[in-house]
Design a protein that fits this description.
Layout: H1 3-13, E1 20-25, E2 29-34, H2 42-46, E3 53-57, E4 60-64, H3 67-81, H4 88-95, H5 101-113, H6 117-134, H7 146-151
Antiparallel strand pairs: 1-2, 2-4, 3-4
Helix pairs in contact: 1-3
């Protein structure tokens, strides 16, 4: 595979250097934030050697390569664009400007509630265990409380 050629084709099919804001990659995807998604030649991107697929989500344009290929294409792409290495978080932040008000609102709510989900689940499990342990007739025929046990004379 000719990685410089692939990177050059990616730039051309995405509307040129001036249309690319930032670029990062994960294991199999090249994540690119574009200034104008309407300039993308989607059929052209699919015809680039090594491309397994492509789609746009959350303000990012993602091109799928195999795991060994994406690193090399990203390295060549950053050389050609003259941009430094950018993390996925920075790309997501840059893509936030391309999102609609509704998408930003939903993302904000998700950012608030996702971290507290484990606490909510743990609380529910503890309430269920408490209900099972205090249910009449579940373990014994007669309800037994801690007070009854402590007051009993052996």
């Amino acid at each position: 595979m000719n990685f410089p050629k692939i990177a050059q084709q990616v730039i051309e099919k995405l509307g040129g250097k001036e249309n690319i804001a930032t670029a990062a990659h994960c294991a199999t995807r090249l994540r690119i934030v574009l200034h104008d998604e309407s300039k993308v030649d989607k059929e052209g991107v699919d015809n680039i050697e090594g491309v397994k697929g492509q789609f746009a989500v959350a303000g990012q344009y993602q091109i799928i390569f195999s795991s060994g290929t994406v690193n090399k294409v990203h390295a060549e792409l950053t050389k050609l664009l003259g941009i430094g290495d950018v993390s996925k978080a920075e790309v997501a932040e840059a893509a936030g400007g391309n999102q609609s008000l509704l998408q930003r609102l939903v993302k904000g709510l998700a950012d608030i509630f996702v971290p507290i989900i484990p606490a909510i689940v743990a609380g529910g499990l503890l309430m269920g265990i408490y209900s099972m342990l205090t249910a009449k007739g579940f373990f014994v025929d007669e309800p037994v409380s801690l007070t009854c046990i402590l007051n009993s004379k052996i």
